[in-house]
Write a structure and sequence with these properties.
Length: 227
């Protein structure tokens, strides 16, 4: 929903760049809309970035083909950073929310994610709703997220559950996993779901406001209504 609102708010802004707005309120500039002239690129991009910040876009991405490598220095001067290269194209990104840390994902051939099916001694399971849900569709899900560099899957799921919900839970084991061969930047994604346990009286929900809109203990018998 927020991505649609951002797209609509930008419709009246005139720019030579063609672009799309992704589900995380990021703006992706089409490479074939880059001008031939480096100076024109710089002036137009500076205005575009200023407008995106005013309209509360979260990030901007550009892909620069090797034949326009002279644009790289200009892009860097405007705040873009290297993200990844593939073939003869360099992708650069910029986080636009000045009051929050950069949350853009790193680049890799594979991604690994974790989710925690956290249950308590009252026969309840922990569910969350994200502030910026995938494709803008609000739904209940398990707490979890991306595995950080040099982190085990077990460490990652304990950290993600604690960060998103404030709940400190013990890992009991792996329930299942799924794979997506066409994830971010056409890379492979592996997602592991862990069974976790905690005592309700020893934990208080403290949701992470930046990423989590809602967090609730749901009785087992009501799970089919939520999921």
């Amino acid at each position: 929903e927020k991505a649609k609102i951002l797209q609509k708010s930008l419709n009246g802004f005139k720019t030579l760049f063609r672009y799309t707005v992704d589900s995380h309120q990021g703006v992706r500039v089409s490479p074939d809309s880059l001008p031939k002239d480096k100076d024109r690129f710089g002036s137009q991009m500076a205005s575009f970035i200023a407008e995106l910040k005013r309209k509360q876009a979260r990030s901007i991405w550009i892909s620069i083909p090797i034949e326009k490598s002279g644009f790289i220095e200009t892009a860097a001067s405007l705040g873009f950073e290297f993200h990844h290269t593939k073939g003869s194209v360099l992708t650069m990104s910029q986080w636009l929310e000045e009051d929050s840390p950069n949350r853009l994902p790193g680049y890799s051939t594979h991604y690994a994610g974790v989710g925690g099916l956290v249950v308590n001694d009252q026969e309840e399971a922990l569910l969350v709703q994200e502030t910026h849900p995938y494709k803008g569709e609000v739904f209940w899900k398990l707490p979890g997220g991306q595995v950080d560099a040099n982190e085990t899957l077990k460490e990652a799921v304990v950290r993600e559950v604690k960060e998103e919900t404030g709940i400190k839970a013990k890992v009991e084991g792996v329930i299942t996993f799924r794979e997506n061969p066409c994830f971010l930047f056409q890379t492979h994604d592996l997602y592991f779901v862990f069974l976790m346990f905690c005592t309700k009286a020893d934990n208080t929900i403290q949701k992470q406001t930046a990423e989590i809109a809602k967090c609730e203990w749901v009785p087992f018998k009501h799970l089919p209504e939520k999921m």
